[in-house]
Amino acid sequence: MTLVNDAAPAAVRSPGSRYRAFTAKHLDELTARAGLTAEQRLGTRAVAAVLPFRTNSYVLDELIDWSAAPDDPIYRLVFPQEDMLPSEDVAQLSDLLRREAPKAEIEALAHQVRMKLNPHPAGQLQLNIPSFHEEPMPGVQHKYHETVLFFPKQGQTCHAYCTYCFRWAQFVGEPDLKMAADDIERLKRYLSNHPEVTSVLFTGGDPMIMSETVLRRYIEPLLEVEQLESIRIGTKALAYWPQRWVTDPDADDTLRLFEQVGEAGKTLAFMAHFTHPRELEPVMVSEAVRRIRDTGAVIRTQAPLIRTINDSPEIWETMWRRQLRMGMVPYYMFVERDTGPQDYFAVTLARAYEVFRDSYKNVSGLCRTVRGPSMSATPGKVCVDGVVEVGGEKLFVLHFIQCRDPELVNKPFFAKYDPEAVWLTDLKPALGAERFPFQGMAIGGDTSAHDLAATGPSV
Asked: By three-state DSSP, how is residue 82 classified?
């Protein structure tokens, strides 16, 4: 049993600063601090009319190097950039903002632009699972054989937003794009009817935006579900608001809740998003990690490979080494999802493999728990294992780390090498095959709608 009230360095156990959010209404002031011209600030506001912007005082004061802004990687991680959207869209939105057009007119154009950005990759809205009465359960997804995702209604925001976030559509105020649930009893009934499910993942948004009282209402009932082996929490809060486990008023109560999960015989797994080594540097982060680990929880780390932010082997090697020293488990390097400003952030699959290989080869076996580069695509998590030449044909070697058809997990398959490919749908079958093994797979009860062609638009 951890002593959550144990003494810690005075700088950490001080009352701490109160959380303060900064949103689009603060953009002009903040981007001026970064040295942007009036016209550049207008372009930033135009992008923020389409994509969400939210940050907080901790990110602004502790993580961003303002002397290097706007080129600072953490600045680029949280602030919209003018070239994240097509120039013609930015120009039209800028014009509306410049002449102070009615809000409805601006929002109508912003909606049109959003719909071109594949707001729900991998058929997310088609994954809601039915209840026993075959009624939809919005915000609950039985994504893989043993895993159910739960989007708590009160967790549909974050302490700060990442500009690359593939769930950006959750935060733009369009109800039809949201995924959220609040009926934990219906989830329990579903689990009782599906004994194959051994893990529930709380995601969002960020579940750790919820207070301990609200979080308890979701987690505590699941401790009664015998078949569950693990409860997972996907969160960026360790990077963006580590005070959540150190100085926030309910920090100790939250840690006691985490202890209860272990006492119930289940693993609490933190899926912590760290995108850049600087996010690991503050003392507050180290203390938050220590306190979480002392409850018996396991912290696994993951992030996408993002151009202009972390697209070098040195950055990933530094992150994995630091995470290991802090007692965390490197888990995933993701490929940037086919949604939102993918063109701005995407790294080619060939380059992604090079970055992974060149960082992976320099770390110890304890860091090599990490998998990647992995695409969270419609049929599952596809890992790029390497580039080979067979019979004079250059190929990508791939396999499913996770798949909606469990029979395909860990079976290698091949695709023609394409130096420009950035996603699974850019690839074509190789070695005379007409289809990939996963093509024709039924997803969400509908084969045709989700038949992933080797070429064509992402779903």
From this structure: helix
Average pLDDT over residues 187-192: 92
Radius of gyration of the chain (CA): 22
Phi first, then psi, for residue 231 (nearest 5°) are: -120, 125
Backbone angles phi, psi at 245, to 5 degrees: -115, 5
pLDDT digits 0-9 by tens, 290-307? 999 999 999 999 999 999
Are the beta carbons of 414 and 380 closer than 8 angstroms?
A: no
Amino acid code (one letter) for 389: E
Q: Which residue has the tokens 């893989």?
A: 144
287/296 Cα distance (integer angstroms): 15
Query: Using an 8 Å Cβ cutoff, are 255 and 224 in contact?
Result: no
Does residue 78 contact residue 67 with C-beta atoms inside 8 Å? no
**What pLDDT, on a 0 to 100 scale, did the predictor assign at position 342?**
83
Q: Is the pLDDT of residue 109 over 90?
A: yes
Beta-carbon-side half-sphere exposure of residue 70 (alpha carbons within 13 Å):
18
DSSP 443: B
Closest CA to 186 of 113, 147, 129: 129
Q: What is the mean pLDDT of the chain?
A: 87
